[in-house]
Amino acid sequence: MRLTADPSIGFFRSRVPLLKDLLHFTYKEALCCVFPLVIFLALAVTKVVSVPYLPRYDAILLICLAAQALMIRFRLETVDELKVITLFHVIGLCLELFKIHMGSWSYPGEGWSKLAGVPLYSGFMYASVASYICQAWKRFNLRFEHWPAAPLTLLLSVCIYLNFFTHHFIYDFRWILILGLLAAFRRCRVHFTVSTTSYAMPALLSFLLIGFFIWLAENISTYLGAWAYPDQLHSWRIVHWGKITSWFLLVIISVLIVGQLKLWKQAVTSKNVSERPVE
User: Which residue among 166, 171, 188, 199 has the highest number of C-beta atoms inside a 10 angstrom radius?
Assistant: First the structure.
């Protein structure tokens, strides 16, 4: 009598490497999200626990500063990455100052560290996006295929950022910008490594997925009282799905800036190595 192997055994065995990669991917993603998770914890804890004589927004700011210092101390982030994150803190804070002035959203709580109605900790929410991208870049060994030329990426970044301001006064060009992004990145793919296996996906799809998860995080943040949109001042409600496009565009700015800075650094490093005298 001939014994035949159960085909279901072969099916499950063939899926074991994929399952291992999925677990490893989840672990790496958790490491990439350390700083955003700290912000979530700070929002959650300060919502139910108050520090005597210290307003909530100031407590969150101190937690963010301490977390950033610890990430540098334990080498979860490098000094160069801290520079990029600081740049995003400034970019985000400028956007916050304008949006608060225009009434797009508000920070109803009290705080000594509020500037023109904007708590300084808010810049860390933008910095956390840059932190995630920097972490993912090195942990997944990100490589982009058919990355657009530097002048084009710079132009797109500037136009996207300016549109966040100008749409209050003139036409909102976001859909035109999205069409431009589709044209510029139509061939661009991002390659990433999990364990020893390399995967790839369309770059725009990865940006959209990140934007979607940030939108989910935004819903959690507004529920925890991080800030409030006009329709959330009296009772919380889900953030309008249209905000996903805003986060999609902001993610692209973040990736373009981080990516271009890394390319420039690689070029400078290669130039310095080539110019080093042979002893």
Answer: 188
Around 164, how many Cα atoms within 13 Å sit in the side-chain half-sphere? 23
Q: What Å distances lie between residue 85 and 1, 126, 144, 225, 254, CA to CA?
A: 68, 8, 21, 24, 10
Q: pLDDT digit string (tens) for 249-260? A: 999 888 888 887
CA distance 112 to 122: 14
Query: What single letter denotes the amino acid at residue 206?
Result: S
In 10 A of CB 147, how many CB atoms? Answer: 20
Average pLDDT, the chain: 86
| pTM metric for this prediction | 0.84
C-beta separation of 105 from 123 below 8 A: no
Beta bridge partners of 119: 114
For 151-177, how does the pLDDT look when each residue is reduced to its tens digit (9 = 90+)?
898 899 899 999 999 999 999 999 999
Collapsing DSSP to helix, strand or coil, 228 comes out as strand
